[in-house]
Specification:
alpha+beta, 3-stranded antiparallel sheet, 32% helix, 20% strand
Length: 69
């Protein structure tokens, strides 16, 4: 289960929904619609975590709702 906060917004420039995962540096995804963007983000989060594990890098614990968001 993915517990990281996702920030989702529409981008006129990209003509797609953008998903940012602030707790995982550089972790972003997009999609033509909201559901696709979230599904893509889930895949990217899993890949981010898998890659960090393979490289022996720390994986931040999910904090839930960010205070500044």
């Amino acid at each position: 289960m993915i517990k990281y906060e996702m920030i989702i917004y529409w981008s006129d420039d990209d003509q797609s929904f953008i998903v940012e995962v602030p707790e995982l540096p550089g972790c972003m995804a997009d999609g033509e619609n909201y559901e696709q963007a979230v599904a893509n983000a889930r895949e990217v989060i899993e890949a981010w975590i898998r890659t960090a594990q393979e490289l022996g890098r720390p994986i931040p614990a999910p904090k839930g709702r960010l205070m500044y968001a």
